[in-house]
Design a protein that fits this description.
Length: 116
């Protein structure tokens, strides 16, 4: 059974930093493309960042470039998102997404709140 479990979401002040993690199991991690997708209160899903299998190329939505860094550890089946210079508009539920072939899987999400 494929499982994705996110962790690390908390309340943080504007300008602060945070690290989100996604632990995967039940699939071959190295075959997957991993992404972070977020949903702000009252809004739709927004793609944040992706890291591709094997080649480890990374991509970011414009609003987080230079502030967020995505990475993966294939030996530990984990993916992370280092977030810095956080803004109130980064407040959202952050979901881990995994794609293998034509199948997509989601975690349950972790809440990030940026507020003073």
């Amino acid at each position: 059974e494929v499982q994705l479990v996110e962790s690390g979401g908390v309340l943080v002040q504007p300008g602060g930093s945070l690290r989100l993690s996604c632990q995967g199991s039940g699939f071959t991690f190295t075959d997957s493309t991993m992404s972070w997708v977020r949903q702000a209160p009252g809004k739709g899903l927004e793609w944040v960042s992706s890291i591709f299998n094997h080649i480890n190329n990374t991509y970011y939505t414009e609003s987080v470039k230079g502030r967020f860094t995505i990475s993966r550890d294939n030996a530990k089946n984990t993916m992370s998102l280092e977030m810095s210079s956080l803004k109130p508009e980064d407040t959202a539920v952050y979901y881990c997404n995994m794609v293998i072939g034509f199948q997509a899987y989601w975690g349950q999400g972790t809440q990030v709140t940026v507020s003073s």
